[in-house]
Design a protein that fits this description.
The chain has 253 residues and is mostly beta strands. The chain has two domains: 142 residues, Pnp Oxidase, Chain A; 90 residues, no CATH class. The chain is 3% helix and 58% strand. It contains one helix and 18 strands. A six-stranded antiparallel β-barrel has the order 1-2-3-17-16-15. Strands 5, 7, 8, 9 and 13 form a five-stranded antiparallel sheet that branches. A hairpin with a 2-residue loop joins strand 11 and strand 12.
């Protein structure tokens, strides 16, 4: 299939030169320029001239196939804190002791988020024989058969459930992750940078169209969600404040 000269493929990269943060990894970029015909009267109706002027200016949408703490903070305006993350322990195996105490201590008990353990978090058996334990927490009394007490990463079972093999899915804190704290008044600041769009040339080689702007502002709604291959995990609208100083430049390679 032949490609048109300079056919844009939508994917590219974003370089934030103000904050020195490159949003690398291929993104999907869509741009639009808002124009309107303005009539300028010159003496009488027959002599009126018309021209097109930018109103609302230059903008579009950027979508990323990946996400990290710095990207989310830049798009929302929050602040990042290192050494504070959350991990998932999925279906961690354990066995209820055959004699008191009927406790199973989770591997990450010291950092366990107890509230992440609920109905469906702890089960025994498999297939049609799988059954879930109902979680109860501190102050909820001793567990009945089919219940599990949760306290500081320790699971306490009823004697009737002794010797059962159980699997538990839960959250625990770690010191390797990063958290983003977002306040009600947080907004992303304007920035200068390069928006790079890839394009296929007539020679079937890869070229690029690079747009540089001095004043880019994130606007509109932010979509943050799970994704499958070929779909955006993060999208955010942007606007370029292109004033009379001529702060918008487009390069072609």
């Amino acid at each position: 299939m032949a490609l048109a000269l300079g056919a844009l493929v939508g994917q590219g990269m974003v370089f934030d030169t103000t904050n020195k943060y490159p949003f690398l990894g291929y993104a999907e970029l869509n741009f639009n320029v808002d124009t309107k015909e303005i009539e300028i009267p010159k003496g009488n109706w027959n002599n009126q001239n018309a021209y097109h002027a930018l109103i609302g200016g230059f903008g579009g949408t950027i979508g990323w196939h990946y996400s990290d703490a710095n990207l989310v903070a830049a798009l929302i305006g929050g602040s990042t804190t290192t050494s504070q993350g959350i991990s998932v322990a999925k279906e961690e195996a354990g066995t209820v002791p055959s004699s008191p105490d009927y406790d199973v201590t989770l591997t990450n008990s010291a950092n366990c988020v107890d509230d992440s353990i609920g109905h469906g978090s702890v089960y025994t058996g498999s297939g049609a024989a799988k059954s879930y334990f109902q979680a109860i927490f501190a102050g909820g009394g001793a567990p009945d058969p089919g219940e599990v007490g949760v306290s500081s990463g320790v699971l306490t079972f009823n004697a009737a459930d002794a010797d059962k093999a159980v699997k538990t899915t839960y959250l625990y804190t770690n010191t390797s992750g990063v958290k983003v704290t977002i306040g009600p008044a947080d907004t992303p600041s304007s920035w200068a940078g390069y928006l790079v769009i890839e394009r296929f040339l007539e020679t079937n080689t890869l070229g690029r169209m690079t747009i540089y702007a001095k004043d880019i502002v994130w606007t509109g709604a932010l979509k943050l969600g799970a994704t499958r291959a070929g779909h955006d995990a993060l999208t955010r609208e942007f606007r370029v404040n292109n004033d009379a100083s001529g702060d918008l430049v487009i390069y072609f390679d």
